[in-house]
Amino acid sequence: EKAGFEHFMMKEIHEQPKAVRDTLNSVVKDGRIDFKEMQISDEDLNKYEQIYIVACGSAWHVGMAAQYVLEDLTDIPVRVELASEFRYRKMPLNQKALVIVVSQSGETADTLAALRLAKEKKLATLAIVNVVGSSIAREADHVLYTLAGPEISVATTKAYSAQLAAMYCLAVQFARVREKITEEQYSFYISELLSIPEKMEKVLEDKERIQWFAAKYANAHDVFFVGRGIDYAISLEGSLKLKEISYIHSEAYAAGELKHGTISLIEQGMLVIGVLTQDELYEKTISNMLECKSRGAYLMGLTTYGHYEVEDQVNFAVYVPKVDEHFVGSLAVIPLQLLGYYVSVAKGLDVDKPRNLAKSVTVE
Ligand code: M6R
């Protein structure tokens, strides 16, 4: 049942190209995105003035990444909320908002409660869910299914990637319907989206390099992940993957925040992982990383092929293929998932069932 892999997590990491391909193929028809199945019309997509994305854990991280893509491609302001906060927060809600809840299981208690709250407030709701017929899928006005298949490992990988892909489709379709992008740009984005699965395969081919690095850092006590924009969102996910299954304390910071407090924690030999996939932000983030290096930190830089200057700046470089920058997080997250996995294996831990955690959190 593990298809020759030692753990479900590794099997699911390898199923990501398929999960993304299947999810994209379910909405991309003849080169166009088609949301007919979830009964959302172009008219609907035109009327929203605000988007709230509400979720927990990794699904919230998907929201954090999607926010940058949605806001950059469309004219709609996006707010990303932790479901456990949203449900108790008395915030003024825009009545012309779309509330997007994201959940692999479709049973997460806080996310379900947030969905019910949104419905009570008469807001339009859309659920991005993996489990067909789950509570969240049944109760939301519209459902966009991720086709990741059953996910067994507590640490999510393929569901996360499929959720990101679903979000990209929403962003591109919103952008086209609202005429924020031209027909040419629309086709370009769709072909870039369709290129993701193959590029993911390529990233997976390099896994031994990450395994080697993981063995070296298996005894680390603290790891920091930094990045700006989409790279920050990917850092959040990388950090959760590591801590969740390896029990190493790790934190993700928006790189610009380091000098507002966190840099005082940097000590000799500490690992700082920088995500550097956004060309415009590369210089800014690498300079924050170099400040850590001069205080003794060991640097891992995760960037795209072509940024070979990184070799002179960091101690360990990892590359992913290029794709339109809005979508590159789908590739950058994979080496970070692999890092969490290999560290956990090197420490002899229960990778698929980390202590104190459940696959689906049905209590608050
Ligand atoms: O089933 P959901 O997507 O609603 O679950 C949300 C979180 O509990 C989940 O993503 C959790 O953070 C994972 N264990 C992360 O790997």
From TrEMBL:
It is found in: Cytoplasm. It is an enzyme of class 2 (transferase). The active site is at K359 (for fru-6p isomerization activity). Keywords: Aminotransferase, Cytoplasm, Glutamine amidotransferase, Repeat, Transferase. It catalyses: D-fructose 6-phosphate + L-glutamine = D-glucosamine 6-phosphate + L-glutamate. Residues 40-180, 213-354 form the SIS domain. One of its GO terms (molecular function) is glutamine-fructose-6-phosphate transaminase (isomerizing) activity. Its main location: cytoplasm. The keyword Cell division does not apply. Its EC number is 2.6.1.16. Homodimer. Catalyzes the first step in hexosamine metabolism, converting fructose-6P into glucosamine-6P using glutamine as a nitrogen source. This is Glutamine--fructose-6-phosphate aminotransferase [isomerizing]. It comes from Hominiventricola aquisgranensis. The chain holds residues 259 to 622 of 622 of the full protein.
